[in-house]
Design goal:
Length: 254
Amino acid sequence: MAPRFPPEICWIFSLARCGSSVIAYAAAAPWALPVADEPFGPWDRTGPPYHYPPEQKVLKERFWESGEHLTPEVLGLAERVFDGIAKDSARLIVKHPHDMIRPEEFRTELPHHRSVFLLRHPLKRLNSLYARGWHKSIGPNFDLDRFSLVARRWLEHPHRLTFEQFRADPRAFFARLWIAFGWAFDESHLDVAVAYQQSHYHDSSAKLSDERPDAVVSEGRWCVPPEAEAAYAADPFVQEVMRRAGWSDTAQSP
């Protein structure tokens, strides 16, 4: 029997409601690659529909108990979880729509892992949270502080992507993502990824929705409170990020 090597692991960092689910699964589709969908928690994903290795439940518990640090124990558990999810695949995409893992720890402890950082217009993202009723996921100050923290990480990351780029030109988007991952690809791979994106909508995580990708609930109505719009408009750093990303600095309903 040939020796089995650890999988090549590539990450998509983002915040919730930035499109990371459909992007991760579409990016994996041309090669039928596995996706490690939020293995660091906060959920136990050892049961259906994920069926992750039993170490995943322990991983998310130890990670949180450590103060969300990549301790030696956490890293050892993560390696076993990644290996179990990958099975015989030589590659694995990790989807991480959280602010839990610190970039400096990621670079130090996982130097061979590649990554991209995905960001979405902050008010469009906030509208998605409100429209979906995810009020418990909205942090203090209309989630502005969390967005600012992650936006700083996005600005510092060498491979920056936006949800708006994905919607405007998915072929170019997937090409940039795979180049950042160091993967060889051709037009046929782009065809598969775009076809997946056009025919699948992930309501959240791996959960497929009956909604059409071009007509989702959170883009059909504007739910952001005026106070939230004012808070984002008054924050100089947020305005600078919006300028750097090429976004309008004023709230616009879908």
